[in-house]
Amino acid sequence: MDSLYDRSSKLAKTQVKKMRWALGLNGLVSVAVGVMILVWPGISVYALTIVFGIWALATGLVNFGTAFTSEAKEQRWWFVLSGLIGIATGVVVLAWPSISAVALLYVIGVYAMLLGIAAIVGSLQLPLDGRDTALMILSGLVSIVFSVVIFAKPGAGALAVLALIAAFALVTGVCQLVIAIGGEELLERKAKAKLTPKARPQPSH
User: How far apart, in whole angstroms, are the C-alpha atoms of residue 179 and residue 187?
Assistant: First the structure.
């Protein structure tokens, strides 16, 4: 029969794997969107609206679904928050297919800003370590810088804007993929460390 520590360790590993799968799926979708925009420079506003709406909605649903299967509070609230941001943005964009190019850019800017803030906060709350924390923070900073540029120059040329969106999707996606794929040992070690009973100080004689 497994001890309480063994059961707790297995539970922690399961939660870590769920988080890694969610980040991996989001990263894969983001990279796919970035590549699609790069190879389709003549994409119309309508097509970009649909692509962005599906992207935001898909990542939001993945995060929201992960929140309901996670038993770790520090992970659950973050996935709920990120999921709501993605779902709300996706629904608004897909329900407004005739949105103008400028309005779409503002929506994307707000989405990137909220996602960036969530990523930075999540880097301090999720069971990450070292390089993975830095990557999560980098992803958040890229999102925030992207949103600031969008708000500062909403009337920039179409190619410049598409390049920015593609870069935003690729950088955030690659960061999430690296955390999901390459951070397994670090994440599991962090989870184990939290479960390892602390040695009690020996009484002095």
Answer: 9
